[in-house]
Each structure stands twice: as C-alpha cells, then as structure tokens.
Amino acid sequence: MQRKFITPCLYCIFFTLLIQLQVFAQTGGVPTGTDTSCSNGISFYQKVYGGNKDETGEWLVPTADSGYVIVGHSNSFGSGGYDGLLMRVNKKGSLVWSRSVGGTGNDVLYAVKATSDNGFIAVGQSKSFGNSAGDGWLVKVDAAGAIQWSKKYGDGNVFGEAIFDVVQLSDGGYAFCGAHQFAGGVSQSFVVRTDNSGNVIWSKQYDQPGSDEAWGLTEDGTSLVVVGFYRAPDLYDGYMMKLDKSTGSAQWRNTYDAEFGRHMLMAKVRVINTGYQVFSLIMDDFAGSNQQQCVWNIGSNGSVQSVRKIVIPGLHTSGYGWTPLADRGFVVANGENITNPDVLLTQVNANGTISWSKNIYEMEDK
Question: Mind listing the domains of the chain with CATH numbers?
Fold first, then answer.
C-alpha cells in the first residue's frame, strides 16, 4: 500500500503553529492540492508530497521566510530501503528543495530544528553505517539543503540507539536525547552534548525505574531540561529531569502521572515565563489506544502548576502536535478519528478554557 503525507498550514492566525503530523496518503512527484488565501491575503493550503512509494513526515519547523523544513523517511528515492527525507517548502507550500539521505539500510529522521547559520539540524536513526540495529544519527544541512556533515552515535550494541530530539545551544553546539537499547524491549534514556561540528563533549545515560526513553529537551540558561517516559511493570509514566549543561549531571528528576490506571508519555518541553510547558499523551494501554493530549505547566523546580487534558467526547483521538503561546496558553493538533484522521486544532487559554477549535480535513475526501 502506498502512503503520502499532507501538510496543512494556516497563517490566518497570529502565531506560528508548529505541528508534528503523521498523516499518510498518496504521493506524487510534484506538490498538488488546494491553494487559497485568507481575507488578509496570507496563504492557506494543503499540499501532497512524495514519489511512487511510501513517504512519512515526522516533524516540521518554520523557516524565516514563513515556509517550513520537513523531515521523515521515504523509500521512493535514495540508496535502498527507507532513507531519511529532508525537504523545504515556501510559504505557499511549493517545494524549494528535497533531499534523501542515508545508505542501503533503513534510515529515518525524527526531528529538525533551525540553526543560527540559517541551516538546519536533523536527528533520527540510521541502520546503514555499521549497526543493523540502528545508531543515533545527526545530520547538518545548510539553507539550500546541502549536507555539511553527518554523524552517527552509538556503542555498537546489538539492540541499537535512536535520537528523538535536538536543540542548538547558546554556544552554537548541540544537545540531543534518545534511547539506548540494552536488551530486547528494554531501553535507557541518554543525552549527548556536542560542539558545533557534532563532536561529543559529554554523553550520559540516565537510569529510571524499569525501561525508559528521552523524547524531548530544551536549553534553560546553564541547564538542560529533558522529558520522556519510563515503563513500570504495568504502566508508562512521564518523567522530567534538569541537567547541568556543562557536565550532564542530574540536578533533579521527577516522575508524573496524569490519571491513575492509564499510561502517560511526556514528549516535548519548552521554556515559558513561569518555568516549563510539557506536552504529553495519555492512553489506555501500551498499544496507545484512546490517546488524549495533556499539557503541563511545571515550575523551574519541577513542581506542577497546572494540568490541562484535551478531551473530545465521543471520538477516538490521537495526536502529537503542540505549540506553547506567550500567555501560557497553547495550541494542540489532534487526529479526530484514528481510522480516518482529520486534524482538529484547538487553542486553550492560560486558564484552561478553550478559545477555539477548528477541523481541517483532506480536501480530496470531502
């Protein structure tokens, strides 16, 4: 079965919405779809991208010219298997450049961030360069998509590593986080700091109860703040830890549980004026059934200030998209129906009330 991914973009609102979408559909070599304008003349569009096989968009980041850089994986192009995919589109969704990166194994890029030199840094996992179980993978490109350097990270263990998030630091270097697999189905969180060429300054693994993975991180002054999840015998629960940026030593580490008897994954974190805002998912089981989004405001010492769960009555939802707003509110993107997903955007005010909610559907299906 062929799959495509769709990028819906709304610039009619007065903030930049950064959405992680895993929406699959048919692909073509040239972007297609609807292109119109809001009353203020700013573009609204849906576009379809890809080749004659499978493509998945995992993450996107806004660019300075109001476009986006998107990462994921593709088996329509490249060196064999799935290759990492990087592509840049302009503010109307037209393709500026596209690159497949990787080798003969299966490679994927999970996240991307803009860098201070107008380029981009992407992270993921590669199974092409020595470890068939996978190494953590860091790829640096310039503004035109040309690869400046690409590096793998791992100790060669038979279970592999993967990187899930990255941040450029104030000194121009990078920090990234992920999961080190040390047995079948058992993993441990790790964080690595590098210089601006990807050379390791320090690398640390962090032991939580049971199996754990680090999914998101951010810089906060002299610290790094990391979020993820750990697997207890019966449940996933979230965790957050604050690290000394210079050494990687843990300053504190807390665990969090949104609902008794349900699973929770903490996925991404951003700095806000009262501490941190953390995006998490609540679900019924290890398979991820009946996902609901939950956003936490957490103080700089790890104390919980507020928790807001997004519930859509009567619908089976899923979603990973979230962006914090300056007033401590936020916007989230849900999949409205997991078997035929439309995207539901919801803005939540700082006091937890819903400001608005908008449904976005694939236009060829309506």
Answer: 1-114 (no CATH), 154-366 (2.130.10.10)
